[in-house]
Structure formats: structure tokens, C-alpha cells
Amino acid sequence: MDSRDRFQQIRRILIYILILNWGVAAAKLIYGWMIRSASMKADGFHSFSDGSSNLIGLIGIWVASRPIDKNHPYGHKKYETLTSVAISALLFFVCFNVLREGIARFIDPVIPEVNLNAFLVMIVTMAVNIFVMVYENKKGKELKSDILVSDALHTRADILTSASVIITLMAIKFGYPMVDPIASLFIALFIGYAAVQILRESSRVLSDAAAIPIQEIERVVLAIKGVKECHRIRSRGRADDIHIDLHILVDREMDVHRAHHLSYAIENKIKRDFRGVTDVVVHMEPMEMEKNKKRF
Ligand SMILES: [Zn+2]
Ligand SMILES: [Zn+2]
Ligand SMILES: [Zn+2]
């Protein structure tokens, strides 16, 4: 299977899961609204935001497959990061609204009308989640796709959230309606946590934070024959698109032909030792005889 086939398969799976997630979200939102349950609606919003993160994955695959062009010599992968920021803003908004409704219900309690259908909706949507988790995990491992495997892990956590809503519905049935807003506040915190995680990772990428610790790169580069010293090591970028540049000192008598080979050796070694490195630029300087010479 070539990489285009693989991308197409991952894309198809993500589209299926997106549809399932939004279907599950619609069922919980509509039914939660009908029976006036804050926690069921909150869980619905949560599933909606999960669908949105499938959308990030889809956009990521779509833009990543676009080739480098004149206007984007570094490729198009940061569009995915940019989309993540937008999704995180959406999650903060959802989190805020769920919190607001939960708190309002403490001031002005609403008693949800739990019926058998509400339980059915929760059980069916939970079954869909379990199916999604198993399917995504199996396909993710087959296709070696991090997006699918990590999304499967996330879906596993969602099954617990849905289970907590079922318990909440039972508590309401047994005469404890205040469990409902409490559960919705917990779900709001889950959504807020996801929003913070996404924003943290995106801002790390957008602000060019170091992607690999300097000492680790230094250790690898200094082990290569011909490299006398190494400084000004910089790394940045997304986990799947890391750019590195560095300066090295070599024997001042080294000829250009050998120097060129050495720079290739460094590039290949770094790419082999660190996953996700797509670009290495090596700047060479002659080792000067006198000590304490200024380095540039
Ligand atoms: Zn989720
Ligand atoms: Zn060259
Ligand atoms: Zn230098």
C-alpha cells in the first residue's frame, strides 16, 4: 500500500467516525434537551467537540497531502495547527456554556423528566462509542496512524463519561436531581481540559518552542566522525514536521567534497535518530588553531 492509499484509508475512517460522533452528539443533545437533563446535554456537547477534533485530523491530512509550492516552501502543515487553535476556542466556548447552565441550575433547580427512552439513547450511543473505539484502534494499528490510535484512546475516556451520565440518570430517577448539574460541571471541566491541552500544544508549535532538547541533538552530532564541535542548535515545529539547524566545527583542511558528505551524514543520522525530523540545515566552520577565537 503506498502512502496515498494509506492517507485515503485514514481519511475515509475519520469521515465515518466524524459522522458517528456527530450522530451520537445530536441524539444526546436533542434528548437531553427534551428531558431537561444538563448532564446529558453536556455529554452531547462533548461528543460534538470530539467530532470537531476528527475534523482537525481530516483537515490535517488534507493540507499535509498538498505539495510544497512557491508561496509555502515549508509546506502546509501549520494550517492544521491553526485549525486546532480555532477548535480549542470552540471548546472553551462550549465549556463556558455548560458551566453557566450547570451553575444556573444550582440557583434555580430544574428537575429532569427521566424516562426509559433516555436510558436507551445513552446505552445505544455508548455502544456506538465502544464500536468506534475498537474499530479505530484496530485500523490505527493496521495503518500505523497516530491520529487514529490517539483518538481511540480518547473515545475510551468518553465511554466513562457516558457511563457517568447513565448513573446520573439513575440517581435522578431515585430522587436526587441535583446530581445532574454536578455531573454536567464535571463534564464541562473535561471539555475545558481538552481545550487547554490543544491550545498548549498549538502555541508551542506556533511560537517555535524547541522541539527536541539541545543536549540530545548535540550528543548525536558529536558522535559522528569528523565533527569537532557543535553549537547554535535550534529545533522547532510540529511533532511530525521538525526543522533543525546547527553549526559545527570541522578540520580546517577538509575539502568541500568531504564536507558535503559530512553534512549529509549528519542530516541522515539526525533523521534516523529523531522521529518527525523533516529538515536539517548544517552550517560548517573551520576549526581555528588559536584558542578563544570568536565563533559565529
Ligand atoms: Zn471526548
Ligand atoms: Zn548539497
Ligand atoms: Zn557558528
List the main descriptive attributes of the protein structure presented here:
three-stranded mixed β-sheet, 68% helix, binds zinc ion, Alpha-Beta Plaits
Characterization of the model:
- The model has no long low-confidence stretch (mean pLDDT 88).
- The two termini are 47 Å apart.
- Helix 1 runs antiparallel to helix 2, helix 2 runs antiparallel to helix 5 and helix 4 packs antiparallel against helix 5.
- This protein has 8 helices and 3 strands; from the N terminus they run αααααααββαβ.
- A hairpin with a 2-residue loop joins strand 1 and strand 2.
- The chain is mainly alpha-helical.
- A 3-stranded mixed sheet has the order 1-2-3.
- The chain has 2 domains: 204 residues, Alpha-lytic protease prodomain-like, CATH 1.20.1510.10; 73 residues, Alpha-Beta Plaits, CATH 3.30.70.1350.
- Helices cover 68% and strands 10% of the residues.
Question: Per DSSP, what share of the residues sits in E-state strands of 2 or more residues?
Answer: 5-15%
Provide mean pLDDT, rounded.
88
Please name the CATH architecture of the largest domain.
Up-down Bundle
User: Whole-Å distance between the termini?
Assistant: 47 Å
Would you identify the CATH H-level superfamily of the largest domain?
Cation efflux protein transmembrane domain
| Helix/strand order | HHHHHHHEEHE
**Class from secondary-structure proportions:** mainly alpha
Whole-number tally of structural domains? 2
Order of strands, main sheet, comes to: 1-2-3
* Major sheet details: 3 strands, mixed
Gyration radius (Cα, Å) is 26 Å
Shape designation: elongated
